[in-house]
Amino acid sequence: MNGVTAHFGISVIQEALSRLARIRRAIAADASLVMPPVIVHWAGWYVPDRGVVYATVVPKELAGCFQWCVEVPISTLLIITDDTVLRRLLVHEFAHVFWQIPELPGGDEDSEVLERSVADQLDYALDVDAGRLVDPRDWFGPADAEDFMVNATEDESLLPFTKKFSDVWIRGGLRTVSPPLCYSVTGTFGCDKTIAKRAKEIKHNSLVEVVK
What is the pLDDT of residue 204? Predict the structure, then answer.
């Protein structure tokens, strides 16, 4: 953290964290839904021969149960200075969280530990990325659903920030680590009651459509 603080300054870091909170609240307000927790990791995420990683979805033990959370490195908040791009990225990651909810078809299939190297695990995650997203129209406000980031690895809006990460973070010698792509869970999963309610409504509506 010290190297990042010295490079950017504490006021810039505090503003980045406040900005994250504001954008999360704005997404939630437009969706009329509580968004999943966002956890900030105090380093940059980088995988050799693969590149920068902006965010991931992991289960964390919170409030007496495991919850699917979005985890972002502090580098993402400091490098992606465009609010629209950061918001689209967060919506994309929240869509991964909602996909994991057991009440939805296909949910919670990826809770086992995957015995792969970090590079192989990242390749696997990128391969299945677009297939593990909910329909944004069910979960987010109209503007976020319309401007949805379908594939975070190929979205052109991230390209300038990928270069910026290399120029600022890598060349600046700031701390980088591998992202937490493997995990082990022993316990009960839970989520905010508004999220569970929305998931049940969506499942019910999909069953009604099948019957029709």
Answer: 57
pLDDT per position as a tens digit, 119-133:
444 444 555 566 788
The answer to whether 30 and 87 are in contact (CB under 8 A) is: no
Q: Which amino acid is at 166?
A: S
Give the span between the Cα atoms of 59 and 201, in whole angstroms.
Answer: 23
Distances (CA, A) of 189 to 41, 69, 75: 22, 11, 29
pLDDT at 61 (0 to 100)? 85
Q: How far apart, in whole angstroms, are the C-alpha atoms of residue 28 and residue 11?
A: 26
> For 58-83, how does the pLDDT look when each residue is reduced to its tens digit (9 = 90+)?
888 887 788 889 999 999 999 999 99
Q: How far apart are the first and last CA of the chain?
A: 56
Kindly tell me if the per-residue pLDDT of 8 is higher than 70.
yes
Closest to 92 measured CA to CA, from 161, 25, 36: 36
Angstrom distance (rounded) from CA 85 to CA 149: 9
Query: What are the backbone angles phi and psi of residue 182, rounded to the nearest 5°?
Result: -115, 150
Sorted by sequence, the CB contacts under 8 Å of residue 12 that are 6+ apart come out as: 78
Interhelix angle for 83-99 vs 10-31, to 10°? 60
Distance CA 161, CA 85 (A): 10
Q: What one-character DSSP code corresponds to residue 156?
A: G
One-letter amino acid for residue 157 of the chain: S
